[in-house]
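Here's my example:
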Amino acid sequence: MGRNPAKTLIAVPEATEGPLRDPIPAGARAVLSLFEGPLATVRFPELDADVLAARASTVLEAQREVEALERALDDARARTCEANAQLATAATAALAYAKVYARDRDELQPLLDAIVLPQGGGRHEAALAPRRRGRPRKDASTAELLPSVEST
């Protein structure tokens, strides 16, 4: 198990090939640096620079996988949102056509009148609502938190 102490054990990956976030805690990173430098030739039972480098590499690979899955999840969420918007548009048009069709069919009117579709083309209304600004209004429960001081 010969080892070249001059060899860099843990190369910090380039931004294009490595994870966006460094998953290795600062303490572990410091230990890795020690075993790349002053302790490069020191071996402990089942622990040396090569073992630490391999485990750090495993952590970096797992982080790359997590980030790839997060990107895929974000893409899937965006596709779901777009598909929901398209469905809402189609459902709105279908309901309008059905109401015209059902004008002379009294048995369909209650069924169609019971359907309520979201406004705004299927987008979530809370996302469209303007944010409230300023301080919240006082209500009876918080109006007087401190007792009044009366002057005599």
